[in-house]
Amino acid sequence: MTFNFLTYDSQIMGAQTKIMTKFFSENQLVDYQFVESTSSNMFTLLHFKTFGELSFVEYQSDTSEKINTFTTTNAYCLQIVLNGKSIEEGSKGRILTTGDSIFIMPSSRFISKDSVNCRKLIVHIPADFLLRTAREFGFFLSPDTTLLDAGVKPFPMTGPLFNLINDMLQQNPTQLGERAMVYYGKLLNSAILTMFKKPNSLSNHPMHRYIQCIHDYILSHITSDIPIDELASLCQISRKSLYNLLEREMGLTPTLYIRRLKLEKAHSDLKSNIHVRNVTQVALKYGFTNLGRFSAHYREQIGELPSQTLRASCR
């Protein structure tokens, strides 16, 4: 299982474990301590990369007698075992083998003993960023981390989530705008939330059910012209109540919310480049008849022009 770091902020080869502990501390990632069993313990690889509000770390060591203590107070962390085995110390005793992943919650402590040449990828996500994304994408996740599954899950070795992380690792952040990096980060957060959220973990608040209903209805009619009154009727509330609901819960008007979801689908089509001839085809598919406005709205939300997304997908 391999991710391709084409660009990175730091690369360290053949350093002692105390150097790695210092590196994590100085970069204020997490309280991550590597306990040496012998003075000769060496790390064979470390890659570090920041991408907007996220950071990625890939590391591998050459020793099997090593205890890793991982603690974070204000961030979520996705750990993926790319090679070898990682056994959690303590009562839970979770075991991660090649291809397994675990989502570590804020204020949680994960102590593990790794096998020889165990290699991991760690994705560090600030808690406030994940919670903002959850709200925007309709997960309605509260700071109560029990809504997320702390169990071991197989990480998909192919498909959208794997491809998204690989794409972020290969992109040069200095060549992307801030909006583009935020959008990439939100897509990754949404995919992680989908993977690790517990069944029936959505809030029971009735207004949240309305948002979920609106979200699902828009997606099922994403290529159609969706009247505002139709959404109000769907929820059996007044047009004014619909505006108040979306403004309070999403910070958007109904029109802007519909447009945002349509632009996300347009971005997905352009990026996947499946049966896409040109930008005009995609714009018209989702009801954007003014191509100039489509490009302007797309750039404002995604961080690049639709033509740039399409060109990148053809490389």
TrEMBL record:
Keywords: DNA-binding, Transcription, Transcription regulation. It comes from the Bacteria. Residues 212-312 form the HTH araC/xylS-type domain. Transmembrane segments: none annotated. GO terms for molecular function: DNA-binding transcription factor activity; sequence-specific DNA binding. Coiled coil: none annotated. InterPro entries: AraC_XylS_family_regulators (IPR050204), Homeodomain-like_sf (IPR009057), HTH_AraC (IPR018060), HTH_AraC-typ_CS (IPR018062). It holds the Pfam family HTH_18. Signal peptide: none annotated. The keyword Transcription applies. This is HTH araC/xylS-type domain-containing protein. It comes from Marinomonas primoryensis.
